[in-house]
């Protein structure tokens, strides 16, 4: 007998429908699996056989052919165990079950219980799109099911529950539909704990408001890491679409906590500098998202930037421009989104005390120069805001707590609202994403601002790219002040965030 069962597959964060066709014919007992399965899929036979026996089902003494259609798409992972088991049971002449409108995913344990799979959320979305009414998946993936309206999701703990449901009409609870409600104050550390550093805090506010990348330079212990970790607390809250997309990436990578629903707070990722290029950008077979994609719609923090190998910095260049990375391997090709705010932190020299008011620096100019040159030029260029974080004075450290994140976030949200309205037709959310063509149109300047910008361009010897960045930052500063036309104050402040590379990287160039 022949039977087909609906299932799903995933490539990158794109889910698609898969039909598991099972054919049982009399003859020498054998089991064949076709349809571009990878090793994990091929091993389904052994898992399904044990699970079937332990569930008390007969393993068919027949010629069994399982085809995963469409046959030209590579199938990865053990998620077809469940549909194969069901298909076998029906095709081998077991009792009839009406599986129409139902799709199944899940890895089987040898005792018939179900293990969670990666990428469930993307697959549920694809199933809904394809008009599937019900999805049956492992219990631990139920949280992802509850995030999506318009489709019924049944989280189940074992294949037995599914058999009982279809054969004996036993009720199964559906995943509770949750309303999307990001917390008004994200459960992350607060800005108020950082004392002093007003200049750096202001720069962080600008970074959050316009979606700009930022570099923090200063001696050890001045709060660089502390401040970076607090950036998610002042970022605008995620929209439902952003939250879903970020969750899709986390789900595909298998890093969603068990039973978790949507990622509701902008993610914060801080990979160690020993991370491999594949760990950073994504890779493997099948391709999995890397840290840059796990930071999608959130923050990627590179602490001790010069310690990162040059190749890691090179890897970041293209994703920083495009917001998406495509990984091509012999085992498949997959794209993952990667729009994040890059925060980098570093000491000004190997010993850390160059420019420190009291501690002497022990580094020779040559050593310092080698250290700084480890930061690749193109990456430095893409860090829109450069800020120095000097040592905090004793009285500042013991002063009252600073402004809480919630207040800063209100200003950030207001500035983002202006941007969303202005760029509605462009379909971009913030100034950081303005293309050079749109930039000129949306950045009107007062005559003084124009003059100042011209002066800065000549004196700082800016490239076209850094000029664009200066303009984008000026736009964000004006937005934070609620001004549509960019004034000279905004430009002057923006120039200040672009002048540190003169001090450290090109000290022979005149300061503005
Ligand atoms: N500006 C600051 N306000 C309050 N505490 C600070 C500040 N700077 C440093 N600290 C304290 O010093 C610790 C180390 O700071 P950290 O952010 O790791 O420094 P850095 O990354 O600049 O080396 C923090 O955990 C905090 O306790
Ligand atoms: Mg640090």
Q: Quote the average pLDDT.
A: 91
As for the number of domains, it is 3
Number of helical regions: 21
CATH architecture annotation name of the largest domain:
3-Layer(aba) Sandwich
Using only C-alpha atoms, the radius of gyration works out to 28 Å
What portion of residues belong to β-strands? Answer: 15-25%
CATH topology of the largest domain: Rossmann fold
Low-confidence parts: none
> So what's the overall shape?
elongated
Order of the strands making up the biggest sheet? 11-14-17-10-18
Spatial gap, N to C terminus = 82 Å
By secondary-structure content and strand pairing, the structural class works out as: alpha/beta
Which ligands appear in the coordinates? adenosine-5'-diphosphate, magnesium ion
The CATH superfamily of the largest domain appears as: P-loop containing nucleotide triphosphate hydrolases
CATH class of the largest domain: Alpha Beta
In which range does the helix fraction lie?
25-40%
Q: How many strands, what sense, and barrel or not for the largest sheet?
A: 5 strands, parallel
């Amino acid at each position: 007998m022949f039977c087909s069962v609906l299932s799903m597959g995933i490539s990158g964060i794109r889910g698609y429908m898969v039909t598991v066709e099972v054919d049982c014919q009399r003859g020498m007992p054998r089991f064949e699996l076709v349809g571009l399965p990878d090793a994990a899929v091929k091993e389904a036979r052994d898992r399904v056989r044990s699970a079937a026996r332990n569930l008390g089902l007969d393993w068919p003494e027949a010629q069994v052919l399982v085809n995963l259609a469409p046959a030209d798409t590579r199938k990865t992972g053990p998620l077809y165990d469940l549909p194969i088991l069901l298909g076998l049971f029906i095709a081998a002449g077991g009792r009839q079950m009406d599986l129409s409108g139902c799709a199944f995913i899940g890895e089987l344990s040898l005792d018939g219980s179900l293990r969670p799979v990666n990428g469930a959320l993307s697959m549920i979305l694809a199933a809904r799109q394809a008009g599937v009414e019900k999805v049956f998946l492992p219990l631990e993936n139920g949280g992802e099911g509850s995030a999506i309206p318009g489709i019924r999701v049944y989280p189940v703990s074992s294949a037995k529950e599914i058999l009982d449901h279809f054969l004996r009409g036993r009720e199964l609870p559906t995943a509770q539909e949750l309303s999307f409600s990001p917390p008004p104050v994200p459960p992350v550390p607060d800005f108020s704990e950082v004392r002093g550093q007003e200049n750096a805090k202001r720069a962080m506010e600008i970074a959050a408001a316009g979606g700009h990348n930022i570099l923090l330079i200063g001696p050890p212990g001045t709060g660089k890491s502390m401040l970076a970790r607090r950036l998610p607390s002042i970022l605008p809250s995620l929209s439902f679409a952003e939250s879903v997309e970020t969750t899709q990436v986390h789900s595909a990578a298998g890093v969603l906590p068990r039973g978790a629903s949507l990622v509701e707070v902008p993610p914060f990722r801080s990979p160690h500098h020993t991370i491999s290029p594949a760990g950073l950008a994504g890779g493997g077979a099948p391709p999995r998202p890397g840290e840059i994609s796990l930071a999608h719609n959130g923050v990627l923090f590179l602490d001790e930037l010069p310690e990162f190998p040059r190749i890691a910095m090179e890897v970041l260049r293209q994703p920083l421009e495009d917001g998406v990375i495509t990984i091509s391997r012999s085992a498949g090709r997959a794209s993952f989104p990667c729009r994040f705010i890059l925060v980098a932190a570093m000491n000004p020299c190997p010993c850390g005390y160059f420019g420190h008011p009291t501690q002497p620096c022990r580094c020779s100019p040559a050593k310092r120069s080698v250290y700084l040159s480890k930061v690749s030029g193109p990456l430095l260029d893409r860090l829109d805001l450069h800020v120095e974080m000097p040592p905090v004075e004793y009285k500042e450290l013991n002063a009252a707590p600073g402004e809480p994140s919630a207040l800063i976030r209100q200003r950030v949200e207001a500035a983002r609202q202006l941007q969303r309205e202005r760029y509605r037709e462009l379909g971009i959310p913030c100034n950081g994403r303005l293309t050079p063509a749109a930039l000129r149109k949306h950045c009107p300047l007062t005559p003084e601002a124009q003059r100042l910008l011209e002066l800065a361009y000549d004196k700082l010897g800016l490239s076209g790219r850094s000029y664009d960045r200066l303009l984008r930052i000026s736009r964000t500063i004006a937005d934070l002040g609620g001004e549509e036309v960019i004034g000279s104050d905004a430009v002057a402040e923006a120039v200040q965030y672009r002048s540190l590379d003169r001090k450290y990287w090109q000290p022979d160039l005149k300061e503005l």
